[in-house]
Give the backbone structure.
Amino acid sequence: MYNFWVQSKLTYKGLFFWLNWQGYTSAVFLQPFATVIMFAVLGRYTSNPDLVRSYILGIAVSSLTFIIIAGLTQGYTRERSLGGTQFLFVTPASRLTNFIARSVFHFPNGLICFAVGILAGWLIVGMDFGAVNWLGFVLTTLVVCFSATALAQVLGIMSVATRDWVSIGGVSSGVLLILTGMIIPLNVFPTVIQEIGKLLPITSGLAAMRSTFNGATLGDVYGDIVRELITGIVYFAIAYFAFIYFEHRVKRTGTLERDIQ
């Protein structure tokens, strides 16, 4: 276990290039704070407190997903560009341990971003926490963060294969904003689009999060929480098998030093 934590720390420290006080403060504190303020103030002009809360929670979750996706995808890309991937492929190190270790310290970054976003909502528009079912709300937040991390692992494999974490991160963040209900309610879309949205991480968890924030019990949102958890597990499995496939592919074809077609 000690070796696992050391590996997690060194992987995070070596590949997360925002790990300096300027970059970290901007990405983890200032960006989510400013983004939530912008949408909270916009929502305030609707004169609908429920809509304001919905906006704040959705944008706080978007900040959570952004920092995790950006952190993991850039780490995968830079490991390859810096020549670290080759050393992994020639060692007998556990691939599963290495895979899990990559995300360990990105998970709390997401939680911090989310907390900063909620704090911004409270400070700027007086977000009311009086009805919150805290047990359900905290549990749902952890599950959402887990599923966002799972998606980031999938996107990380894509970024290391293409050497382009910026485009992958940007496109995926846009898709999540539109199709998971972060800003636009999912029920305004055609049924087919709604079903696609339900296959993505965040969608079910965000619905449960909003419900528990308004006082719903765990029994009321049990189905959404379980669905979000299962979605995260499925994405983690997809990412791990893609991780193994990428290694086998580049070993067989000798394509590590150039883009895979």
